[in-house]
Fold:
Amino acid sequence: MKPLSTGTTRILLPAGVIAVAAMAALAFGQLSAVTAQQKVPPPSREVAQYSFAPIVRMAAPAVVNVYVRSRVQAFNSPFADDPWFRRFFGENFGEPSERVMSSLGSGVIVSPEGLVVTNTHVIKMRGETEVRIALSDKREFDAKVIAQDDKTDIAVLKIDGGDGRFPSLQFEDSDSLEVGDMVLAIGNPFGVGQTVTSGIVSALSRTEISRSDSQVFIQTDAAINPGNSGGALVDMSGRLVGINTMIFSKTGGSVGIGFAIPSNLVKVYAESAASGRKVERPWLGAKLEAVTREFAEGLGLSRVAGAVVTRISDKGPASNAGLQPGDVITSVDGVEVTDARGVFYRLTTKGVGQTARLSVIRKGQPVDVSLALLAAPAAGKDDVKNLSGNHPLDGARVSNILPGVADEMNLDDTDGVVIVSVRNGSAAQSLGFKPGDIIVAIRDSKIANVHEIEAALAQRQRLWQIAVKRGERVLQLQVPG
Structure:
């Protein structure tokens, strides 16, 4: 899988074209079977001149190019002061040098004030980053990142300057899409300039293609290529139904399998960023896993789909709602879900403060559960810390494993310290630490909370020995001090 660097009205064809097509179908139906198989010209000028141009004229001005430049420090060699190396490689050998990295993607303006949605992987680079937006009318503006989320791959930018009357696209309800609906993909593939391709919705609610538990995708066969990342997927009314994000390809080019983040999720992040709020994912207080074939057979389920509850947190929303281990969630608010990702997607787009209706299979019997969508308990000032210093975890942000954190990161553990983020270019990143890693021990000291990890890192070591739990494995890391 390769990432690419609300209204309800649906208009599929102009009324005149529909009428002409209907008369043509009636006429053709009267032909014999032999005649019907013959190649014939279009029955009228109107049919021959059918075009997506009116939709493109409406939508294309709101699709922009996103240029990102990042200044990073190149590698500083440990042999920089060695006269032997300087003799052969020059006096500047091993000294830090600035290097400029750049990337190109697409974005969509979703408000006249210049709010732009794109993908996080388009704008996320190391070091000091500059973002510039180029409109289809050749105007260019600087932009600043006001929100980004790695798990959903959604980023929100704000254009600096302008007159506050930028062309923009309206969100369509992505739940109104059906397989077979026609869509257009608009973006800047390979940096050649704005390009439009057409196709259909090939599938909905694709979840198995991503490692993140928060991503659900629309699949389309509209040609999408590198550079289309963050570009628009629009329906036949010119409304935004998705943000093009990744492709399935063995060659790097389009093979007709592209994926877009549904507009309903993008809208949640855009509206939160515009109001200065961070998106709060509802706290479930339970661990969910996909239903396997063996599990379905054991429970006598009619289909291998849904999310099985494997763990319930005490006093959490799931416990208060009456969910039980072994329950299989089959739908949320009447919409079928295929796995745990589908459940979390539905709860996120529903929003904190709402109530979701879950359809559950419990011991072979259907049960309806009303789930209050609450925010996770807020972390205290001593629960989360940014680690810095002369040690291997410099640049890591760590947290005690609170119920909400375990929920958010889909962790089985409820005790210990987990890495929630890693700063780009930091020592922790260079050593391969990742969000979700649980720090088990440092040397001989077991780590139970943030205070203990700070105390352990404060002691200088000639050789750092760190035990890290990643998934089901415990890794032993040794780093010179």
